[in-house]
Amino acid sequence: MPKYLESSGPKRKHQILSREAFDHLLRALDADRDRAGEKYELLRRKLIKFFEWRGALNPQDLADQTLNIVADKLAQGERIQSFGAYCCGVGRMVLLEKSRESSLEDALRAEARIASDATETGLGDVRQDCLEKGLQQLPVENRELILTYYRDDKRAKIETRRALAERLGLPLNALRIRVHRIRAKLEESVRECVERSEQEK
Amino acid sequence: MNNRDKDERLIRYLLGELTEQERAELEQAYFVSDAAFEELSTVEDELIEAYVQAELSPADRERFERGFLTTPRRRERVDFTRRLKAEAAKRSVAGHQSWWQGFVPAFPVPRFAFALAIVATIAVALGIGWRVLRPGPEATEPVQARRTPPPSGSASQPGPQAPLARVAAFVLTPGLTRGTGPAPTLTLPKDTTTVRLKMEHEGEGYAAYRAILKTAEGRTVQSIAGLKPATPGTATCVAELVAKVLTSGDYVLTLSGRAPSGVFEDVADYSFRVVKQ
């Protein structure tokens, strides 16, 4: 069962999505369950990024809250033609509601802005270890690709990436997207590793 | 709208500079189109990278710091990018795995034993290098700029031809604060790719260190975590900087050591001047 369906204790303020509602949502996304799962994950990622790009401090919670609302609406008989557009609309409503509730978040954001001088918080060692582990866990060709891609600066960077794209037989834009996908997975695995380390303390 | 204008619009979105209507249109677009979402995410990666590499103009840097570094999650992303770049540069200097693979022999030597032999050889060479090249306390000139040869003799070398890595190594000792005499000058030869700083300090050594490099004006250039003592139990540690983050000018490097309580305490400040040839 995906982790967002499990109770995560007192931190979750909204209703946990029931198994039945989740299944109903998946069926509405796609008749094939595996493809439906992928579409669900992508929707969730888009929502997380949407909330992040809008400056929310807890984008994952808000994304789950949005998907809960969408699943509820579906269960109530709502017909949804475009899940992307629908989730976008619900997400904006959740954001609006959140911003009405919370001036505390604004204060926190202002404080975070003042403190944004790259000072380490004591998680430096953990993050470094997690990055090294994450790199090791990548398939060799992906690891080599991402390390080569990010190796250089300025002019050398442009040349390296051009040469890399030629070597792989890809347009430069396709290389950018490929590296972005590898990086996104690596970043997610590092984030999860850091969270696990924090929980183990 | 050409690509440049499109990218600028995406950047303005990421920095929170679009009107509400413009944001709504863009959000609708990326929720409906997976390609548009991926493009925006990729532009975000590149914007963060440009910031980390100090490639943004002062005005854009300010826009970024004001409009993007507003949540812990986003600052984590910047930290991740910084670490990834540093790791990539470090592995490039070390000539990392792909170079080593060129030296894996055809005959059956246990891989672990072979790798251990390589590591031991390099460790001895580095140890000798530090002892031979370490200047006296008053020295201010760079001790060595070594060229790391490119991988050679490797039939199947993955990736593009690696440019030569050039390392400039220095030893810093504390107590050289501004106003008490000229700060040491670190002269970086042309094409230096990595600056290796060995920091010595008084008192007991720590199990782990972090270092924060700032300009004389107080702007943070780089924060380096996860540093270990150069030799366990000694009051030294080594940090590596990608040379590109340094421009000619005055800097202060603040070294902190992790106490047994887990809290970092300031250990020493090192002032120095960088001159790039």
Q: In terms of quaternary structure, what is this? A: heterodimer
Output the structural class of chain A: mainly alpha
Globally, the shape of chain B reads: elongated
Rg of chain B, Å, rounded: 22 Å
What separation lies between the terminal Cα atoms of chain A?
Answer: 26 Å
Largest sheet of chain B: 5 strands, mixed
Rounded mean pLDDT of chain B is 74
H/I helix tally of chain A: 9
CATH architecture descriptor of the largest domain in chain B: Sandwich
Number of DSSP helical runs of chain B: 7
Number of beta-strand segments of chain B: 9
CATH topology term of the largest domain in chain B: Immunoglobulin-like
Radius of gyration of chain A equals 20 Å
Instruction: Summarize model confidence as the mean pLDDT of chain A.
Output: 83
Percent of residues in beta strands of chain B = 15-25%
Ends distance of chain B: 42 Å
Overall CATH class of the largest domain in chain B: Mainly Beta
Tell me the series of helices and strands of chain A, N- to C-terminal.
HHHHHHHHH
Most extensive interface: pair and counts? Answer: A-B, 60 and 65 residues
Low-confidence stretches of chain B: 97-111, 132-163, 176-180
Structure description:
The complex is a heterodimer of chains A (201) and B (277). With 201 residues, chain A is mainly α. Chain A folds into two domains: 3-114, no CATH class; 124-200, Arc Repressor Mutant, subunit A. Chain A is 73% helix and 0% strand. Chain A is built from nine helices and no strands. Chain A has helices at residues 19-29, 33-53, 59-75, 83-101, 104-114, 124-137, 140-149, 154-168, 172-200. In chain A, α1 (19-29) packs across α2. The longest helix of chain A is centred in the C-terminal third of the chain and has 29 residues, at 172-200. The radius of gyration of chain A is 20 Å and the shape is globular. Chain B is of the alpha+beta class and 277 residues long. Chain B folds into two domains: 3-92, no CATH class; 138-148 and 164-277, Immunoglobulin-like (Sandwich). Chain B has seven helices and nine strands, in the order αααααααβββββββββ. In chain B, the strands form two sheets. Chain B has a five-stranded mixed beta sheet with strand order 3-9-8-5-6, with no helix packed on it. A four-stranded mixed beta sheet of chain B has the order 1-2-4-7. In chain B, α1 (3-14) packs across α3 (34-52). In chain B, 30% of the residues are buried. The model of chain B is unreliable at 97-111, 132-163 and 176-180 (pLDDT under 50). Classes of the chains: A mainly alpha (201), B alpha+beta (277).
